[in-house]
Design a protein that fits this description.
Blueprint (H helix, E strand, L loop, with lengths): L4 E5 L6 H11 L10 E6 L4 H8 L4 E5 L16 H7 L3 E4 L2 H7 L3 H13 L3 E6 L3 E4 L4 E4 L3 H5 L12 E4 L13 H18 L2 H6 L1 E5 L7 H5 L6 E4 L6 H8 L4
Parallel strand pairs: 1-2, 1-10, 2-3, 3-4, 4-5, 5-8, 8-9, 9-10
Antiparallel strand pairs: 6-7
Helix pairs in contact: 1-2, 1-10
Bound molecules: phosphoenolpyruvate (PEP).
Keywords: Cytoplasm, Gluconeogenesis, Glycolysis, Isomerase
Pfam families: TIM
Main location: cytoplasm
């Protein structure tokens, strides 16, 4: 059984005091973790404080990126070992903004994913829109396969800790979300790719998320799709009331 997952990605927003008050509000109003898992991905500067404040609540804390080495001469980078050390549970990797502005390649994202898994955390691997519809049979196919590239050398037994986020770049931050049919198509393609790479059993364990202008208005429809196990929300996660509306999508 795949437990639904809703995560907020704050990107480079909020101050430390805003982040702390967000956690103080949200931690007391969360659905039980057996029915929904939830996380917030924040600036590395806020992570120790957020982990402390969320302790004992179902809210988990995520990082937005990390490097693939645990330590060394890599000025300005964030070590996955230090993320584990402060109690981070998830790390977003390969977000389309990292790919666009920081030229992250699939190869680099793969090294980061291996490192996050080695350190006992779960990677949430972003797949940008690199797909096209084959017009003749209205079927999705890869132009470039970010899923198989990112999962190179990831062992089948680690796959239940991996999440993949289907995030078409035209939907991120634009207010124009994919329709539930488009989002389901993308997530279905990701699941079939994992099935071909590993097995149907492995593909069945992996949580696949949709991201791109998710709001309280479209979250329930998206979450109802068979291959969408959760959502990654940017803008809608910046305010505690809006984030709680996402979490309570069933009400
Ligand atoms: C994101 O940052 O992953 C995202 C989907 O942002 P937004 O919800 O603002 O489109």
């Amino acid at each position: 059984m795949r437990i639904p997952f809703i995560a907020g990605n704050w990107k480079m927003n909020l101050t430390l005091s805003e982040a702390e008050s967000f956690v103080k509000v949200v931690r007391n109003h969360l659905p039980v973790s057996e029915t929904l898992e939830t996380a917030i991905a924040a600036s590395p500067l806020f992570l120790p404080s957020m982990v402390k404040l969320s302790k004992g609540s179902p809210l988990k804390i995520a990082a937005q990126n990390c490097f693939y080495k645990d330590a060394g001469a890599y000025t300005g980078e964030v070590s996955p070992l230090s993320l584990k050390d402060v109690g981070v549970s998830y790390v977003i990797l390969g977000h389309s903004e990292r790919r666009r502005y920081f030229h992250e390649s699939n190869k680099m994202i793969n090294l980061k994913a291996l490192s996050v898994l080695k350190n006992g955390m779960s990677p949430i691997i972003g797949c940008d829109e690199k797909m096209s519809k084959i017009k003749s049979n209205n079927h999705m196919k890869w132009l470039d396969n970010p899923v198989s590239e990112a999962l190179r050398n990831v062992k089948a037994e680690d796959m239940s800790r991996v999440m993949i986020a289907y995030e078409p770049s035209w939907a991120i931050g634009t207010g124009r979300a994919a329709t539930k049919e488009e989002a389901e198509d993308g997530c279905y393609l990701i699941r079939t790719t994992i099935s071909e790479l590993y097995s149907p059993k492995v593909a069945d364990q992996v949580r696949i998320l949709y991201g791109g202008s998710v709001s309280h208005k479209n979250v329930a429809d998206l979450m109802a799709c068979p291959n969408i196990d959760g959502v990654l929300a940017g803008k809608a996660s910046l305010n505690p009331d809006n984030f709680l509306k996402l979490l309570n999508y069933k009400k």
